Input
Amino acid sequence: MKRFKMFTITALVFVLMFSAVGCNGKDEKKVDGPKKEEDKVEEKIDLKGEPVTFVCNWELPDPATEDGAKVWERKKMVEEKYNTKIVYETVAYDDLVPKFTQKSLSGEPIGDFVVLLNNWAFPSLVDKGFFQPLDEFIPKDDDRWPKNMRNVGSYDGKLYGISDYVGGATGFFYNKDMLKREGLEDPAELQKKGEWTWDKFLEICKGVTKDLNGDGKIDQYGLIGVPANLANLFIESNNGKITDISSGKPKLTVAEKNSMDAIKFLSDLYNVHKVVEPTPEGKWPDYNGSFEAGRVAFTHGEYWEGGQHKKNMTDNYGYVYVPKGPQATDYVVPNTNLSMWFVPKTAKHVKESIKVFEEWMEFGATEKSFIKSLENDHMVDKDSVDTAIEMSSKIGLCNYQAYPGLNEKFHEAINKISRGEEAPNTAIEKILPELQATIDAVMKE
Output
């Protein structure tokens, strides 16, 4: 469901992007300054009627609608300029990878651009040679492209995934009014000073965890969340990873020191400090429900979950990075659901198609739409909006969901740790052979 949500957001922002373009540029008169001698003459591209095909799991909007009409008007303009046809081939979400793999193995064309989750592409599909590297077509000094695109779209030193905007945000929502009532520091202010750390986070969680009515039962807690999701966030915030592909080959790193320190920190939150609201065994944590009811101070979430909080909460809330662990040098934004466009090995006229992509996507428009959605739909204060915007520049790819079965085994182990059934070292050591086997299976396919 979460992956589907991510693709749905991508499609929605696509519509908003062209709406913003149409509104911003329709009535403005452009005055050209004097032409400099060093200005390059734009290379004329003629695709001689050949289509540029985008394969994804959404359709272009209805041209009969106001927003749709703007998209189709721009489509016509780009088609005429390059003598091409922009084609959107819609493939069901669950069929994207099987269809792409089948056609790649047979050498049958499957469009010029295919949208895929990075976890689908890296490392398996790229390692099989199914994509074309794009470094020669997109210079590193071309500042139209997102600054962090190469960071999340590259594998083994080569650029494969591209996008007009690498955005989104993952962090902690917190109850501002609760912290104010308890006389505790505001994480947003700590974050501005670079002091939003695990120690401060624990201090605040301990400060709010209490029995409010004197019945001997704790009814206000510091934190709630999905244990394995929290584990990944803390691992990344301590300069660790569950799996790592930075060397060009997947490596299991969950048992390394930085990662294990994070898992031990999470275990202590549950079992030593007892600041996490308990969830009955076998139940999925109702982290949004508990947070919105004012029973907990913190919960994890992607930026779009703020829209639900805005509708359902009485208290004011804020949004901050995951606090920094002792091994971190900066705040990080782990992303497991990032999707980008990839160029299949069967694609022709790649250079020309990239030019069409650049003009069709209209750089900057998606970012404006993202910021507008933050301001209007998801956040309630300027600090939270500013944080979510800044997060886009710090997105890092979490790759552990690329290996079927690994995520489930990790969840099981972390659940046992959170319930105090097994010590962190014991639980992780037990599953290491199974985790490695999931990686080996993917790389041998």
The first strand starts at residue 51 and ends at 56. The chain has 17 helices and 14 strands. The radius of gyration is 24 Å.
